[in-house]
Amino acid sequence: MDGAVSIRDQIHAAAVAYCEGIHTSDVEMFRGMLHENFLMTAIAGSGKPVFWDKAGYLERVGGRDPLAGAPDYDIISIDVAGDVMAHVKLQVRVPPRLFEDYLGFFRVDGEWKLITKLFRTAEGPELEG
Fold first, then answer.
1. Domain count, the chain
2. Which InterPro entries match (predicted)?
3. Which of 19, 23, 39, 87 could disulfide-pair with 79, CB 3.0 to 4.6 Å?
């Protein structure tokens, strides 16, 4: 336990912030959440991976308007390893797509940072890369 909030609860809160940040296109929240060496990998419709670094991801998030309505996401699982790393599987809707994301977090100087994101289109038009 970290004070009154468990590590699992901290990771859950980070996953919720991630999903809400996707919904609201919150570049500043992501700027703080993402580690400097963050790497996002998409499995595109061609089956080939497409990669973005932190700057590319921030540009991608900031390049679209916030979504209407309430955020639509499901945190499927959280796996915590000790007090230094965690893995989150979730689905988040960004119409016309539903994405399935695998997020890798690790703790740096007491803060949870997102270091990896591997994702695919679960529903809707495939991304091409």
1. 1
2. FrzH/put_lumazine-bd, NTF2-like_dom_sf
3. 87
Q: What is the CATH number of the domain that holds 65?
A: 3.10.450.50
128 located within any domain: no
Helices (H) and strands (E) in the chain, counts: 3, 6
- Write out the DSSP string of 47-70: S-EEEEEHHHHHHHHHTSPPPSSS
Alpha-carbon distance of 101 to 44, in angstroms, equals: 13
Strand order in the sheet with 85-94: 49-53, 34-43, 111-123, 97-108, 85-94, 73-81
Q: Which of 98, 93, 73, 79 is CA-nearest to residue 11? A: 79
